[in-house]
Amino acid sequence: MATLGISIVTDSCAHFSTPHFTQQVPITVVPFKMDIAGKTYREGVDISAEDALQLIAHQPTAPRVFPPSKNDYVEVFTRLARHSEAIVSIHSSRKMYGSWDNAHAAAQGLMGHCEIAVIDSQTLSAGQAMLVRLAGRAIEQEATLDDVVRVVRGAVERIYSVYYVETMDYLLQNKLMDSSHAILGTMLGVKPFLTMEHGLLVPMEKVRTRPQAIERLVEFVIEFTEIEDAVIAQHTAHINEHTRTLQDRLAAEFPGRYFPHTIYGPSLAALIGHNATGLVILESPIEELDDDF
Q: Of 109, 138, 156, which residue sits at a domain end?
């Protein structure tokens, strides 16, 4: 079977560090909807990440976020099925948002029309985008749908994310941290670190200062011996002082390797707030040794 007919679908929680990536590679991005300051926006369509984060920064409560509906995915899958031999659909963690569930239900209703593989990325934002890029590369190499699915699902376990969060307001509102820990953290003047673990954002530790946060982020990266992809997620479109300092520290530890930065999207900001810094790593796959070696 020729593989040029494999289409890629994802939701707008995927945030790409390379500008215009989705225009260079044929990917259909189905937008989340979100209510910010009493107005509804389609993520990445009606409002940019930068404008959304600026609006969120002035709101006392987290935006309400609505993943694409089953009907949204039925429309997208039906349209793509007309000229696709197969579809691979990669979604934000099903434990954080309902995008995967709605896409899976839509795909079940279209069985027999087109083969559709619906994948839970078990991550968010830049990590999800890394998986989409892997799918795109596999398709360019004329892999079969089974091959593409195997590549993406194999990489799910190699995506690692940590985020340093300046305030705990959204973590409390989204029940990512209990109130007793938040109150104690505020009293002690500490800031939380979060990580993606089995598809969930969970607190892992706390630091007191930004320099300590930068050192902890560097320590996180040093744990990896082989890195296939990496990106710094920040809350501004242009590089900020915190990210520049982090890049300088990483350059000292990884000579010759560049760590790009990107603003994270409002669907992630709705969970962790508008003023976080994160690092997302795709670990290189472990090469299997020949049994006869």
A: 156
Q: What pLDDT does residue 180 have? A: 64
Indicate if 12 and 151 belong to the same structural domain.
yes
Residues 20 and 103 in one domain: yes
Closest CA to 124 of 222, 218, 43: 43
Distance CA 210, CA 70 (A): 42
Domain membership of residue 53 (yes or no) is: no
Residues 278 and 139 in one domain: no
CB 171 within 8 A of CB 192: yes
Statement to judge: residues 273 and 169 lie in one domain: yes
Co-location of 146 and 163 in the same domain: no
The DSSP bridge pattern shows strands 115-120 and 261-263 to be unpaired
Q: Give the full edge-to-edge strand order of the sheet including 39-42.
A: 39-42, 33-36, 64-66
pLDDT in tens, 138-165: 998 988 999 999 999 999 999 999 999 9
Packed helices 210-222 and 241-253: angle between N→C axes, nearest 10 degrees: 40
Q: CB of 70 within 8 A of CB of 105?
A: yes
Domain count, the chain: 2
C-alpha–C-alpha distance, residues 180 and 186, integer Å? 10
280 beta partners: 161, 231
Mean pLDDT, rounded, for 113-128: 96
